[in-house]
Every structure is written in structure tokens, then in C-alpha cells.
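Thread: Mitogen-activated protein kinase kinase kinase, structure

OP (GT): Posting the sequence first so everyone is looking at the same thing. Length is 201 residues per the record. Can we get the C-alpha cells written out before standup tomorrow? I want them in the notebook alongside the other entries.
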Amino acid sequence: MDWTRGHIIGHGSTAAVSVAMSRCTGEIFAVKSTELSRSEFLEKEQKILSTLNSPYVVDYKGYDVTRENNKVMFNLMMEYMPDGTLIDEIRKQGGQLNEELIRHYTKQIVQGLDYLHSKGIVHCDIKGHNILLCNTGAKIGDFGCSKRVDGVTIGGTPMFMAPEVVRGEEQGFRADIWALGCTIIEMATGGSPWTSVVNST
């Protein structure tokens, strides 16, 4: 795909997200990029996202490798979500959402999780920062911590981890449901239920 990179709209622990535009069609999309030498997690995310197709999951657009400013970059292209994250929406609404919005977004997140789990995928990092918004509502994004259920790697954000995950026992479908519960509290109160936990991601 022939494209141009625009301004940065977000940062993750290993990659930056920018707005981009196709030179051929003018389509606007998001591109998540990191140096190729450090792209293990982004390549894993690309492999998972490329297998998904749901109205409740951010659309996959492709990937490529480019040379920019004397660096070789791995780029993951995906749907651009113009309304930002669920956290952005909570802040816009004064620190908490009303019950109608909470129900609306929760239903869509549950439908997204149901789809992922039916495909044998655990997201492992459900939280407001990873729920992206557009005119149709909420979609699940950021699959950098995701895994197939036969995997053993533990990842995610400490404040949203289920107790069994913190203990190092497992990270299965139930861990996503726990994190969803924490996210609902986040929507209702504007904060985490575990205020004493230090967030490392």
C-alpha cells in the first residue's frame, strides 16, 4: 500500500500510533509502528488481528515494512477510530458516563469478547484505553497482549488483572470478563476499583 504518515495520535509500551492516508484512494487509517528490530509484539498483534472480522473489533487493513529516518519500521495498518478511546469519552463527560452509555458500550464490548473467545483468543488487556470509539459505538483494539488459549504468557495491565492472573495461575477467558467488570467501574466512576495498585503499562 502506498501511504503517507500523519501526526501521532497515541503511544503504547512498544509502538506509536499515527494517522495515515492512502495515496491511491485517500482513505484515512491508523498505523501502529515500531522499529523492525523490536517488533516481536507488533508482529504477533498483526497475526492475530489479521484473522479477525467483527463489527466489535477494530478492522485490520494490512502491514508493511518501511525505511524512515534511517530506521527500518514495521507498520500495522488498521481502522481509524476518530472518536478516540473510552477513556477520552469518560473525560469528555466529566469523569463518568451515564447509565445509558455504560449499557451501550458494555453490550458492544461483550459482543466483541464473545467473538474473540469463540475464536479461541483471550484479549488479556481489556481497559478503557483499549476500547476505541466511532459513530457506531465501541470496538476492541490493541491486541499486543492477546494470546490463543493454549498460550502460557501472562500480560496486561495490573489494575485490570483477575486474581488468578496476578497469582500466575492462568489467563483464560474469565480474565477478560474480570477486566470488563473493572472497565464498567471505570465508566461509572472515572477510576480503577484498585486505587492502590501501581499501573506499569
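GT: Both are above now. Quick notes for whoever picks this up: Residues 151-155 have pLDDT under 50 and may be disordered. The domain at 86-189 is CATH 1.10.510.10 (Transferase(Phosphotransferase); domain 1).
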